[in-house]
Amino acid sequence: MRRRLPLAPISTARQLPRPAELRRLVQFRRPELGATTRRLSRALTIGDLRRAAARTTPRAVFDYVDGAAEEEITAARNVAAYRRVTFAPDALASVADPDTGVDLLGRRIRLPLVLAPTGYTRMMHHHGEAAVARVAEHVGIPYCLSTVGSTSIGDVRAAAPGADLWFQLFFTADERLNETLVAQAEDAGYSTLLVTVDTAVSGMRLRDVANGLTIPPALTARTVLDMSRRPGWLFHKLTTAGLTFAVLGSAVEGSPTPGEVASLMFDPGTDLAALDWLRRRWPRTLLVKGVTTPDSARRIMERGADGIVVSNHGGRQLDRSAATLDVLPAIRAAVGNRATVLIDGGVLHGQDVVAARALGADAAMIGRAYLYGLMAGGQDGVLRACEILAEEYQRCMQLLGVRRSADLGPRHVASAPAGTSGTAV
């Protein structure tokens, strides 16, 4: 090898920094005075909100949201299914002026997202269901109130008079109670009735048992110690209206006990006849939540439902069941394109919503994702969760070369969970 001449060193010319240049570099942010504002402004992902929620909420309350049934295998599968998705972007496709909106059940919503029903939401934060409904109205997406909600049907409507509100019904053995709840939702202008069908009996949530959680939370030595570690949460609970099953309380005489609520929620005798009654009684949109097989989906649609929610209750009922994203394409194929198909379970990122749309869902429902925000910062936290998901969704859509939500399809998924229509890489 020929010997080369040594490389001459580079000489560095130095000068004193000019004040004008320094001024362009130095940036001082106005200090954020509120702890909640600081906490939410630093949250860039739903995972950040989850960690913030764990720091601001008693462990038993956080675990009630974060946990699932038995060994929590189903809940983990739900999340893992989305992580296995590989996207296939379109090259050189204009994505100027993106449109994230979709048509859902005859309405235009700004994002293919629905805020799912969650029980006893005021336990997580004193703002409760009213805050969730107000955020849904502000963002332009639906919110579904639970039968075991801690704010009444009428009070949620009063909090968000312009919101697209849905009502989730546990069909009970008490026909008069069913009629009263349905009538209240109809009178309050709720657009959609969503009946949950995967609660023949209660799932075993071991975290709740280990934490000694009861609803409402009982004051024992263990729970008082847990609550005292989160003084902000405890202060609000002691100085705001007491926690009750407000939805059920407005439909029955007296305030129902937890045991009475459990007996109402979990009716092992519920069958397709319940759906027949609901279809005759409810004149508006009827959805069925808790479907995980094509055969069940077909039978439900044959009984007159307007759509289904592919759901395993977020892994909170039957453990070791399939991830919802895994079964979504087969269910979509079974019911065709005329039926509305939603999905929940494991949706924690805007990219998850993109994947769900691409593989056959009209929209995704989220529960834990917005509850983490609620626990971290009340109404503002729910809004922050929606902002995060909306930003992630639009960014993913544009990076895929897709300008409109309506244009997402199976071709945008190069590889996907087992049973989907994605093409192997």
UniProtKB/TrEMBL annotation:
Q: So which cofactors does this thing need? A: FMN
Recorded family membership: Belongs to the FMN-dependent alpha-hydroxy acid dehydrogenase family.
Q: Which Pfam families match?
A: FMN_dh
- The UniProt record lists the keyword Oxidoreductase: yes
One MF term from GO for this chain?
Answer: FMN binding
Residues that coordinate or bind FMN: 117-119, 146, 168, 196, 289, 311, 367-368
Which terms are listed as keywords in the entry?
A: Flavoprotein, FMN, Oxidoreductase
Q: Which residues form the active site?
A: 313
Question: Mind telling me what this protein is named?
Answer: Alpha-hydroxy-acid oxidizing protein
Q: Source species, please?
A: Geodermatophilus sabuli
Entry-linked SUPFAM superfamilies: FMN-linked oxidoreductases
Where does the record place the FMN hydroxy acid dehydrogenase domain? Answer: 38-418
InterPro entries hit by this protein: Aldolase_TIM (IPR013785), Alpha-hydoxy_acid_DH_FMN (IPR012133), FMN-dep_DH (IPR000262), FMN_HAD (IPR037396), FMN_hydac_DH_AS (IPR008259)
Which residues are involved in binding glyoxylate?
64, 205, 313, 316
Q: Which domain of life is it from?
A: Bacteria
Chain coiled-coil ranges: none
